[in-house]
Amino acid sequence: MNWLGLIPAGLALLLSPLLLGILNQVKAKFAGRDGAPFLQPYYTIWKLLHKGAVYSRTTTWVFRAGPIIGLAAIMATLVLLPIGGCPSLLSFQGDLIVFAYLLGLARFVTILAALDTGSAFEGMGASREATYSAIAEPALLLGLAALAHALPGGVVVPDHLAGLGVTAMHDASLSNLLLGLTMAHWMKLGVVIALVAMAFWIVTLVENCRVPFDDPNTHLELTMIHEVMVLDHSGPDFAFITYGACLKLWVLGSLVVGLLLPFHTGMLYVDLPVAILGMFAMAAAVGVVESVIARVRFVYVPQLLVAAVVLSAFALALQYGVPTP
């Protein structure tokens, strides 16, 4: 355990709502409005925490546990995530698989909570969320596999694999992969890294229910996905969901920033500010995307997600023709 990893987790807990404030400000400027203050997400979460919660008599403990478990799962991913040259709190062989499964757990409990209401409306949103995640998850896992093969993180060969004739296996540690990436790898493996970055960008948009996959500001029945699943939540439960959404944007966005901005000088007082500015730029980029394009029709959403899977799969396939530096 590296106690220096408390810095990335602390920054995420503190600054993640600010990403949503930047995103909304960019959208407001494109629309010619002043928009809400940058700190509005903090005010909203604080206000929700001080309100009471209303529960339907048809719901069970699953409905109440969903927001808590979902937020806990998202927060657990923070201990595996490095930022700005600062290592993660925990790092071990195969932690990138745990990372993906924690994101899946957060989504799973949100879907269960929506189904627990017995509402056909929320069941519709849960069905859409499950369908999209079934396509988005392979894109994330294949992209992580491509990075594990391409980037140096040490070579580890377990005894049971060595007995089968395996002579080399790359360290599947998320912290080692992102911290080991440098501009030199972009020069040699730029195509592979760019493909994975594009796939992760698509995954970031769909997992955070952003345009063109979903519109978080709409309440139209035919276009809602995530928002329809949380309509019955209120008070602290909705605060947990809102804060979890901010953390999820930070977590997935940091993967994109880590690939596109491999700036590692070895000096944390330089690397951390650059990484944080990169996160703010990522949030602004999401705002630009939502301002210049419209939400696509449902029939085209699977095509975009399949494109992300193809990008990650192609990046992984290229590894067999490109030697690892």
Describe this structure in words.
With 325 residues, this protein is mainly alpha-helical. The protein has one domain. Helices cover 66% and strands 0% of the residues. It contains twelve helices and no strands. The chain has helices at residues 6-30, 40-49, 61-77, 95-116, 120-150, 159-162, 174-180, 183-207, 226-229, 235-260, 268-292, 301-318. It is globular, with a radius of gyration of 20 Å.
Distance between termini? 28 Å
**Form type:** globular
Total domain count: 1
The percentage of residues in β strands lies in under 5%
> How helix-rich are the residues, as a percent range?
55-70%
What is the number of strand segments? 0
Low-confidence stretches: 153-170
User: Helix count, per DSSP?
Assistant: 12
Mean pLDDT: 88
Mind telling me the C-alpha Rg? 20 Å
The computed structural class is mainly alpha
Biggest β-sheet: count, sense, barrel?
none
- Indicate the multimeric state: single chain
Summarize the structure.
66% of the residues lie in helices and 0% in strands. It is mainly α.
